[in-house]
Amino acid sequence: MSRRDRRRHHDSQETSLALYDDAARDAAARVIARYSTSFGLGTRLLPRAQRAHIRNVYAMVRVADELVDTYRGPDAGALLDGFEAEVHAAMDRGFSADLVAHAFALTAREVGITREQTEPFFASMRMDLVETSHDEDSLALYILGSAEVVGEMCLAVFVNTGRGPRPLDPEVRDGARHLGAAYQKINFLRDLAVDEHELGRAYFPGVSAATLDDARLAELVDECREDMRTAASVLDALPRRARAAVGTTIDIYARLLEQIAQTPARELVARRVRVADPVKAALAVRNLAGRHGRALA
Length: 297
What we know:
Blueprint: H1 3-12, H2 17-35, H3 38-43, H4 48-71, H5 76-93, H6 99-111, H7 115-130, H8 136-160, H9 170-190, H10 192-197, H11 214-232, H12 240-261, H13 265-268, H14 277-288
Helix pairs in contact: 2-4, 2-6, 4-5, 4-6, 4-7, 4-8, 5-6, 5-7, 6-8, 7-8, 8-9, 9-11, 9-12, 11-12, 12-14
């Protein structure tokens, strides 16, 4: 719907499904604008339709994450169950009274996101309500749902927008999953002390703020680098603007990972490492121009 059409609807106080769709997309766009500079910056490099879809995916994921990380009330589990049920119902019927669920459903139905991705995602969110530590198997399951399938959702947006639901290339899907895993593990490293002291969680098996040493940190950094190398190897399979957007987030996270690698373990658990906003903007410009600053060796 054009800006003129939206204004006409508002001026006449008419309503329509198209107007409601726009309101839902606007709500999703507001969520990512408030919460994420890295992904928000990357989405601005996308074509308009892809940008809207990625915002819709991000908003759904963020609402679920806020339920388990920020609200954490005694009925958080019930609220998460209700949100999952509403998201799935919206995907089935194409409408929800919840604007974020509605926006996500628009995207899911157009690009082919299914319960194959959303059910593992909500299962991982539910783990955050009951699990305080992980072994290797439970961590792998958690990352699958909290990050890898989210990468798969984004890939569906990049390759299926305007074309309709189609199967994803297995090799490119694997790269998308590795990228989601890398981002999640880098976030774990960056937020290790906060996760432990404020949320009562330790994600890496046998690692805590008290036990993390430089040798173990180096091993975890190498794992993240390997995931990012796998993801970068299939980047050329994406459409040009999506390649620039994803390349920007890869470069931002690669820069963050290098800062983590250069920070002694004792300092890492005492302060939050971040990439400055001007650096993020410069990396976006380089990717839009067809250059990148990835250093994943």
